[in-house]
């Protein structure tokens, strides 16, 4: 579904990502791990169209995407969350989910002005999807609260809901467990598994919580100083001497 070939990203003289290859298949959970500053978020920014890569190729569902801007990539069905929550803090929870869908589906201005039948049907469907995901993510009781007033854990769930209302094929999660307590992390673990199994979403994950990574990943890529270091199953990665050295070297 997603193929990254020889991805390179330079910032001036700094090579933040150096010839990284990566693949995400249907219904897979794949994690990208590595010490701080390894280049993980930069890889995500290139894949999701926030940065234009300096080199390499990225394809999604057999179409090249490395020259596309972020909004076009999300329309193709690949959406992401951010390391630092980015919601519309002054809008209500439900409004955040409706806006996400408006930006995704092109509803013409005229159709909106004249409230055509087709427009009303799409509005209803958007509301149904929003309600469905609020229930799934235990946010229905706060549907009318301003997003900025939610607890941190709720905001992180809302970010995932905001992705899921667009019914994506692939979901990129940037440190979803950061700042969560152990119970919230366990719920997140369960949720990510459900997204894969029940909604057929392929998931690419950046995460520092090794318990979560080892538990849910089908495969793991390790990057160090922008370069690929190892790839394999959780078991293989856990026992890889190069990986152990890279992590211990950091400590
Ligand atoms: N926009 C940018 N301009 C210049 N340098 C950048 C930019 N974004 C990232 N970098 C640099 O690229 C390198 C990789 O950063 P990146 O944020 O991708 O690492 P990371 O693995 O996601 O780190 P962390 O685990 O701390 O989030 C770092 O040296 C960083 O300073």
Automatic annotation (TrEMBL):
Pinpoint the ABC transporter domain residues.
2-250
Superkingdom classification of source: Bacteria
Entry annotated with the keyword Signal: no
The record's annotation in PROSITE patterns points to: ABC_TRANSPORTER_1, ABC_TRANSPORTER_2
Question: Does the keyword field hold Cytoplasm?
Answer: no
What does the record list as coiled-coil region(s)? none
- Gene3D superfamilies for the chain: P-loop containing nucleotide triphosphate hydrolases
Identify one Pfam family in the record: BCA_ABC_TP_C
GO molecular function ontology, one term from the record: ATP binding
**Record keywords:** Amino-acid transport, ATP-binding, Nucleotide-binding, Transport
The record's family statement is:
Belongs to the ABC transporter superfamily.
Question: Which PANTHER family would you find in this protein's record?
Answer: CONSERVED COMPONENT OF ABC TRANSPORTER FOR NATURAL AMINO ACIDS-RELATED, HIGH-AFFINITY BRANCHED-CHAIN AMINO ACID TRANSPORT ATP-BINDING PROTEIN LIVG
What name does UniProt use for this protein? High-affinity branched-chain amino acid ABC transporter ATP-binding protein LivG
Source organism: Allohahella marinimesophila
- Species classification: Bacteria, Pseudomonadati, Pseudomonadota, Gammaproteobacteria, Oceanospirillales
Q: Which gene encodes it?
A: livG
């Amino acid at each position: 579904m997603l193929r990254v070939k020889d991805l390179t990203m330079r910032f001036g003289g700094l090579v933040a990502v150096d010839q990284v290859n990566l693949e995400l298949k249907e219904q897979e959970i794949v994690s990208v791990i590595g010490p701080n500053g390894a280049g993980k978020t930069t890889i995500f920014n290139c894949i999701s169209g926030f940065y234009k890569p300096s080199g390499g190729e990225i394809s999604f569902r057999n179409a090249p995407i490395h020259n596309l801007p972020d909004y076009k990539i999300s329309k193709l069905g690949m959406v992401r969350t951010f390391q630092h929550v980015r919601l519309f803090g002054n809008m209500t929870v439900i409004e955040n989910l409706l806006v996400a869908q408006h930006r995704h589906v092109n509803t013409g201005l005229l159709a909106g002005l004249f409230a055509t039948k087709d427009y009303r049907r799409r509005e209803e469907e958007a509301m149904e999807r929003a309600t469905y995901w609020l229930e799934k993510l235990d946010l229905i009781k706060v549907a009318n609260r301003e997003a900025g007033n939610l607890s941190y854990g709720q905001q992180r769930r809302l970010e995932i809901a905001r992705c899921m209302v667009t019914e994506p094929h692939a979901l990129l999660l940037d440190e979803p467990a950061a700042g969560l307590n152990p119970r919230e992390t366990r719920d997140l673990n369960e949720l990510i598994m459900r997204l894969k199994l029940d909604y057929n979403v392929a998931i690419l994950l950046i995460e520092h919580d090794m318990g979560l990574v080892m538990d849910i990943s089908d495969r793991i890529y390790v990057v160090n100083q922008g370069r690929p270091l190892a790839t394999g199953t959780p078991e293989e990665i856990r026992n890889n001497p190069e990986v152990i050295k890279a992590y211990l070297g950091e400590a």
